[in-house]
Specification:
The protein is an alpha/beta fold. It is built from 16 helices and twelve strands. It has a seven-stranded mixed β-sheet, sandwiched between helices. The chain is globular and about 55 Å long. The protein binds NADPH dihydro-nicotinamide-adenine-dinucleotide phosphate. The site of NADPH dihydro-nicotinamide-adenine-dinucleotide phosphate has 22 residues, from helix 8.
């Protein structure tokens, strides 16, 4: 804490992982001698830079850019870029730290990193977004490369922003280096299923958890927070598996649609018009913007937090449990507070932490890198099959690891230990680096 003052989210993420690692350290005290724990929570490199740009009124704006290259023991740094006004070093470090173990769980050769800016894309014109992205990449490009560091999207960064950044990278370097960014458009090196991957993967993970109790999504009531990339495709997969999503949200509130979300309408509003969830309620018969409370007050069988960190606290968890929730799987990164996690675990609720449940996005990014390296592109069915298999394996690994350490059903422990082991082994093999 003293070394990293004021980085609350980073402290929270490290504490959770280190709690889970206690039995590993008891079994392997050499981990302490080689200072693997100290090394793993110290980023290999962090870059903070100025992002100046001109708005539509020709006024100069200045934002701050970040890239934390956390750990490259298993492969090039890999992790998204977040554009949101709340971004500061503590958020990027928490996300980068989580990414190390998540990427390890995928079984694919990717290290951990994360980046972004405190730029707020909301209310900005298309040309402002483009100028910002170009300025951001004008500094970031020198730190990237398909064997070095490969960013992707996150909150506030989707296909449009990746396009502007890829265009600027290509222009500055004079290299068509497809493998330098993932989440690209399908006509210029992107992968089918990447857009859907995080949401789909989260639901596949939840489905695997349900199966351990002889349950499935069929006929289940589900709430999904957020209405961005992860939320939309989580909703689609829940519907494909026979469940019904009855609520979703954005930072202004939540919408209840007891008939089940009309996904086409939601996609039109969010992906095409870039509108708000209140626009959905205006255009959909029977859907309402809730006047009070929060999305977690609704009685559901399965809850999928897919918006942002610390959006589900202890009292939200208690309400969900009282209302009969049986499973919670995190599409977002660290959306449940430590108190919330404690409640779910004490009540024996199936709880899938983000670093396992939402790993499908980065896994499919790694599949995009494979296709780029092969100068090839795979069809939707094959790519989705790969994603599904990866998620099933991550679930099995977490479950088996939790069992090995005497805590069956503790996916937090399974994910943290399972992710850490490979990274620690590689770091040990490399010596003191
Ligand atoms: P988007 O920008 O597409 O959507 C984010 C959604 O969350 C929006 O509905 C947004 O509402 C809401 N939201 C964001 N910040 C807040 C906040 N402070 N309070 C309430 N609501 C908020 O992002 P993604 O869907 O890509 O990402 C969502 C989560 O999933 C993040 O935690 C991200 O790190 C995680 N994730 C994403 C992956 C990906 O592939 N995209 C991969 C793995 C994890 P509003 O529009 O009002 O801001």
């Amino acid at each position: 804490v003293a070394r990293n003052p004021g980085e609350a989210e980073f402290h929270q993420a490290v504490k959770e992982v280190f709690e889970s690692l206690k039995p590993v350290v008891r079994k392997h005290p050499d981990l302490l001698d080689s200072k693997i724990l100290e090394r793993v929570c110290e980023p290999e490199r962090q870059i903070i830079f100025r992002v100046p740009w001109l708005d539509d009124n020709n006024q100069v704006q200045v934002n701050r850019g970040f890239r934390v290259e956390f750990n490259s023991a298993l492969g090039p740094y890999k992790g998204g870029l977040r554009f949101h006004p709340s971004v500061y070093l503590g958020i990027i470090k928490f996300l980068g730290f989580e990414q190390i173990f998540k990427n390890s769980l995928t079984g694919l050769p990717i290290g951990g990193g994360k980046g972004g800016s405190d730029f707020d894309p909301r209310g900005r014109s298309e040309t402002e977004i483009m100028r910002f992205c170009q300025s951001f990449m004008t500094e970031l490009y020198r730190h990237l490369g398909e064997y070095t560091d490969v960013p992707a999207g996150d909150i506030g960064v989707g296909g449009r922003e990746i396009g502007y950044m890829f265009g600027q990278y290509k222009r500055i370097t004079n290299r068509y280096e497809s493998g330098v960014l993932t989440g690209k458009g399908l006509d210029w090196g992107g992968s089918l299923v990447r857009k859907e991957a995080t949401g789909y993967g989260t639901v596949v993970f939840a489905d695997q958890m349900l199966k351990t109790k002889g349950e499935s999504f069929d006929g289940k009531r589900v709430s999904v927070s957020g209405s961005g990339n992860v939320a939309i495709y989580a909703i689609e997969k829940v519907h494909q598996l026979g469940g019904k999503v009855i609520a979703f949200s954005d930072s202004s509130g939540y919408v209840v649609d007891e008939d089940g979300v009309d996904l086409q309408l939601l996609q039109q509003i969010k992906e095409v018009e870039r509108g708000r969830v209140s626009d959905y309620a205006e255009r959909r018969n029977g859907a309402v913007v809730a006047k009070a409370g929060c999305i977690w007050d609704l009685p559901v069988d399965v809850a999928l937090p897919c918006a942002t960190q610390n959006e589900l606290d202890g009292s939200n968890a208690a309400t969900l449990i009282k209302n009969g929730v049986i499973a919670v799987a995190e599409g977002a990164n660290m959306p449940t507070t430590p108190e919330g996690i404690g409640h779910f675990q004490e009540a024996g609720i199936l709880y899938g932490p983000g670093k396992a449940a939402n790993a499908g996005g980065v896994a499919t990014s790694a599949l995009e890198m494979q296709q780029n390296a092969m100068r090839d592109s795979w069809d939707f069915e094959y790519t989705e099959e790969r994603l599904t298999k990866i998620m099933e394996r991550i679930h099995a690994d977490c479950a088996e690891t939790a069992e090995e350490y005497g805590e069956p059903g503790n996916y937090v422990m399974g994910a943290n230990i399972g992710g850490f082991r490979k990274v620690a082994n590689a770091m040990a093999a490399f010596g003191v680096v």
